[in-house]
Design goal:
It is built from eleven helices and 13 strands. The protein has about 325 residues and is α/β, with parallel strands linked by helices.
Length: about 325
């Protein structure tokens, strides 16, 4: 038996729903650590535009809408921590920012784990904390089986990137004694303002673009609009646990060809051999030469709707 709702009742229900959302926003104070980076800025703008009360932690005392912190010096503005209901941590030096020397590897792990541990050391100031949300990475499943679609339930790999994610997420779990904990495993982000797509298009624009290695290696991807929407979705629906933030998977060859086509540039050069990439980038070449397919079923099963599942449309938005 179905019940038909008249238009007046539907309007009242929609108004009630909108008021409920506004009430939730009024009682929410979101603080973003690592809010000065590309993703952090996108996330801040998105949440602010949605009506949330949101600020960032920054080492720059003069930065707008920011509160000061410096984990290395053990300094943080504790006067605002009691207001925080949702703490988002995006802190960490760039994985692809420099060759992976032993010291750089330590820095990559330290910048993620230490910032988390430092925030947790200030737990006594987080009187109203309800939700801790940590950035993480999809590069945690190893590169053993290119034909497998990896989900959040799959085991970690044994390589360096898997180690980074493992230690990163273990640190995030410190907050499980205080509040709900979520870990968003982020795939390479399509963004017109920076990120991996910007680095890929530079040589292509100069007529120096080429497929890397075999070209068959998988590259998971997500549009920045969907990434920030996933963070909001996790907040609104009080979702704990681990979630892959990925829209789809594409081979290096196909992605390179698509970018060249949209930029109206030919791909003249032969594929860059794997050994050459390893000579240039060292161990970091695994970022370009290895890859697996990542599933987004879990977040979709919770009701999340992607704006960009079609890579062609997503590339149009960030390249044209």
């Amino acid at each position: 038996m179905s019940i038909k709702l008249d238009d007046t009742l539907l309007v009242k229900l929609n108004i009630y729903s909108d008021l409920l959302v506004l009430k939730i926003m009024e009682n929410t104070f979101i603080l973003i650590a690592g809010g000065s980076g590309l993703i952090g800025k996108r996330l801040y703008d998105h949440l602010y535009e949605k009506g949330f009360n949101v600020s960032i932690l920054s080492r720059n005392k003069k930065e707008k809408n920011a509160y000061y912190w410096n984990p290395e010096k053990g300094e943080i503005d504790t006067t605002i921590l009691h207001k925080v209901t949702h703490l988002i941590n995006l802190s960490g030096v760039s994985i692809a920012g420099a060759r992976w020397s032993d010291s750089r590897k330590k820095e990559i792990i330290h910048s993620r784990v230490f910032s988390t541990e430092f925030l947790f050391k200030n737990k006594d100031h987080f009187h109203n904390l309800k939700h801790y949300i940590s950035a993480s990475g999809v590069s945690c499943y190893g590169v053993h089986d290119s034909n497998k679609l990896y989900s959040e339930e799959d085991a970690f790999g044994k390589d360096f990137l898997s180690e980074v994610v493992d230690k990163w997420e273990q640190a995030a779990d410190l907050f499980s004694s205080l509040c709900l904990v979520s870990k968003i495993r982020i795939s390479p982000v399509l963004d017109s303002k920076g990120g991996f797509i910007t680095e890929m298009k530079k040589p292509i624009q100069l007529g120096m673009g080429a497929v890397l290695g075999s070209g068959d290696q998988w590259m998971p991807w997500i549009h920045q609009r969907d990434l920030v929407a996933i963070f909001e979705f996790v907040i609104n629906n009080k979702l704990g646990g681990v979630y892959n933030a990925v829209s789809g998977n594409v081979s290096n060859r196909t992605l390179t060809q698509m970018i060249a086509r949209k930029l109206n540039r030919p791909l003249i050069l032969p594929a860059l051999p794997s050994w050459t990439a390893k000579m240039i980038f060292g161990e970091m070449a695994t970022l370009f030469l290895d890859g697996v397919q990542i599933s987004n079923d879990k977040i979709k099963d919770h009701g999340f709707k992607f704006h960009y599942l079609d890579l062609d449309i997503a590339l149009n938005q960030v390249l044209i």
